[in-house]
């Protein structure tokens, strides 16, 4: 499980899209449920499953969410079954979730999670990105900027921290992390053990 978190507007969604466009990285995106209003650029079932609050409460109470949190006044959660099915098929799952959700997933599966925090190059640029995106009204943007300072303070919880200044550089660093994490010994031990046995059986 690969978790990306950041303050709103730092670039997670953009980076997620870039990761998914690379078939060789072979990542599956977990699509969250949310009670937030759909943005004009968003489609139900693609960016989120947009649901009502009573439906969210039902999912949370029936244990159908792997993690959940209230963020900027809306509720968000990760459907558990979809993720568990992908993991049992040996797939790597990508999450765009906040620090509260990252903590819950890490507590449940500490050895199977890699967490990455994306920082903006400055607060001024963060504001400019939220304004340029032009998807939220000014009250929402102010609310998200106010939350950003607290969210940024969680950077020390994460395995990796990237400053998203140049998008291509950040993407290259992210892809390098995915590739490196896949080569960690505990993750490749089974297949590699067999290879090493064959290697050692070769005559000199
Ligand atoms: N490195 C970058 N340089 C300039 N603009 C960027 C960069 N990365 C992302 N952006 C732009 O900033 C805006 C916010 O990015 P994005 O929507 O990916 O952020 P986010 O972290 O997913 O935000 P949210 O949590 O609100 O969904 C978008 O318009 C995006 O195109
Ligand atoms: N804990 C969770 N956080 C989530 C989930 N889905 C998204 N998010 C985070 O919410 C904020 C706001 O997202 P936005 O799309 O409204 O801009 C952002 O930090 C996301 O990462 C989730 O399922 N669980």
Dominant shape = globular
First and last CA, distance: 41 Å
Strand order, largest beta sheet = 2-7-1-8-9
Global Rg: 19 Å
CATH topology tier name = Rossmann fold
Bound small molecules, by name, code or SMILES, are: adenosine-5'-triphosphate, the ligand Nc1nc2c(ncn2[C@@H]2O[C@H](COP(=O)(O)O)[C@@H](O)[C@H]2O)c(=O)[nH]1
Uncertain segments are: none
Task: State the helical fraction.
Answer: 40-55%
State the helix count: 8
CATH superfamily: P-loop containing nucleotide triphosphate hydrolases
CATH architecture assignment name:
3-Layer(aba) Sandwich
List the keywords.
single chain; 204 residues; alpha/beta; Rossmann fold; five-stranded parallel beta sheet; 8 helices; 47% helix; globular; binds adenosine-5'-triphosphate; binds ligand LQESDW3C; Guanylate_kinase_CS; cytoplasm; Guanylate_kinase; GK/Ca_channel_bsu; transferase
Quick recap:
Residues 1-179 form the Guanylate kinase-like domain. With 204 residues, this protein is an alpha/beta fold.
Explain what the structure shows.
- It is a single chain.
- This protein has 204 residues and is of the alpha/beta class.
- The protein is 47% helix and 19% strand.
- The radius of gyration is 19 Å and the shape is globular.
- The termini are far apart.
- Bound molecules: adenosine-5'-triphosphate and ligand LQESDW3C.
- The site of adenosine-5'-triphosphate has 13 residues, from α1 and α5.
């Amino acid at each position: 499980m690969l978790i990306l978190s950041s303050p709103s507007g730092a670039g997670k969604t953009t980076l997620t899209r870039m990761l998914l466009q690379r078939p060789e990285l072979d990542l599956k995106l977990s699509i969250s449920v949310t009670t937030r209003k759909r943005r004009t650029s968003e489609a139900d079932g693609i960016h989120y499953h947009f649901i009502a609050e009573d439906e969210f409460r039902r999912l949370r109470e029936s244990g159908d969410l792997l993690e959940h949190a209230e963020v900027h006044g809306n509720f968000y959660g990760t459907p558990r079954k979809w993720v568990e099915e992908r993991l049992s098929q040996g797939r790597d799952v990508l999450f765009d979730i906040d620090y509260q959700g990252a903590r819950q997933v890490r507590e449940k599966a500490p050895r199977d999670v890699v967490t990455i925090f994306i920082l903006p190059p400055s607060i001024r640029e963060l504001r400019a990105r939220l304004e340029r995106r032009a998807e939220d009204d000014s009250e929402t943007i102010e609310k998200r900027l106010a939350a950003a300072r607290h969210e940024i303070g969680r950077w020390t919880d994460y395995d990796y921290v990237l400053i998203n200044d140049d998008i291509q550089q950040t993407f290259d660093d992210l892809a390098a992390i995915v590739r490196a994490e896949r080569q960690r010994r505990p993750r490749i031990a089974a297949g590699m053990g067999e290879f090493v046995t064959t290697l050692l059986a070769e005559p000199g």
